[in-house]
């Protein structure tokens, strides 16, 4: 039998979201002794109201378990297995005109977290990430996402191409973001229907095999001297253009 995995998460927004949405996964909340951060009071009260274990430890203790800027609060949580291809196949048919974000091989967990934050803000129905050769939902990604990692439906799949085929079989068109070739401006492309949008690796973009399985390619017009945007910025712009079109 596999032992339940646990990890330390940090950051007030990430913790508050975990406490509100999945308190059953929280093993322990740890507060720094003599903390002067008034923003912690709400998190502490929320945890106590739910009957969660709250303890006070030295700053050294928190620093030992978290190398990042933790704001004086960390929590040990159980890490549930993310849904996969089989779950995606079962779930996607129940969504009316779905908007799905597919992130192909994002390497930086902060970029992943920022993409998730934009996805949540734009009302995306599902996010798909690969299981291998990609940043996972690490504590850093969750902190950057500021709660979006807990609110979004995130699928972690073995094969992105297979996931795209599942979406296509359920009536979704797949748009790949690419600044070369015959890609069209996001402002001149219909993004209103059942749609999956693929964004790729920070340096290499979408992998060739994944691009081959996209129905069409789109790009963000560039008017300055730089030729590309950070993937999290590009994600936000593209998703909100899709949302704008859907609200018209």
What do these coordinates show?
By secondary structure, this protein is α/β, with parallel strands linked by helices. It has two domains: 6-78, 60s Ribosomal Protein L30, Chain: A, CATH 3.30.1330; 85-247, SPOUT methyltransferase, trefoil knot domain (Alpha/beta knot), CATH 3.40.1280. The chain contains ten helices and eleven strands. A seven-stranded parallel sheet has the order 7-6-5-10-8-11-9, sandwiched between helices. Helix 5 packs parallel to helix 6 (139-145). It starts with 5 loop residues before the first strand and ends with a helix. 40% of the residues are buried. The model has no long low-confidence stretch (mean pLDDT 93).
Quick structural summary:
The protein is α/β, with parallel strands linked by helices and 248 residues long. Helices cover 36% and strands 21% of the residues. The chain folds into two domains: 73 residues, Ribosomal protein L30/S12 (60s Ribosomal Protein L30, Chain: A); 163 residues, SPOUT methyltransferase, trefoil knot domain (Alpha/beta knot, 3-Layer(aba) Sandwich).
CATH topology of the largest domain: Alpha/beta knot
Helix share, percent: 25-40%
Low-confidence stretches: none
What's the architecture of the largest domain, going by CATH? 3-Layer(aba) Sandwich
């Amino acid at each position: 039998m596999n032992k339940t995995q646990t990890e330390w998460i940090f950051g007030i927004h990430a913790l508050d979201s975990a406490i509100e949405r999945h308190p059953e996964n929280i093993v322990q909340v740890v507060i720094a002794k003599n903390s002067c951060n008034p923003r912690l009071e709400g998190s502490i009260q929320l945890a106590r109201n739910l009957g969660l274990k709250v303890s006070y430890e030295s700053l050294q203790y928190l620093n030992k378990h978290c190398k990042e800027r933790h704001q004086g609060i960390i929590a040990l949580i159980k890490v549930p297995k993310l849904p996969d291809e089989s779950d995606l196949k079962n779930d996607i048919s129940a969504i009316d005109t779905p908007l799905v974000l597919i992130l192909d091989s994002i390497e930086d967990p902060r970029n992943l977290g920022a993409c998730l934050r934009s996805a949540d803000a734009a009302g995306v129905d599902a996010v798909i990430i690969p299981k291998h050769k990609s940043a996972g939902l690490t504590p850093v990604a969750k902190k950057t996402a500021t709660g979006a990692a807990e609110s979004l439906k995130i699928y972690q799949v073995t094969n992105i191409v297979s996931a795209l085929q599942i979406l296509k079989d359920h009536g979704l068109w797949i748009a790949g973001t690419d600044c070369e070739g015959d890609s069209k401006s996001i402002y001149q492309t219909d993004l209103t229907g059942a749609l999956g949008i693929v964004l790729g690796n920070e340096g290499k973009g979408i992998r060739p095999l994944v691009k081959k399985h996209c129905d069409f390619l789109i790009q963000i017009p560039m008017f300055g001297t730089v030729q590309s945007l950070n993937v999290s910025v590009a994600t936000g712009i593209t998703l909100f253009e899709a949302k704008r079109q859907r609200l018209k």
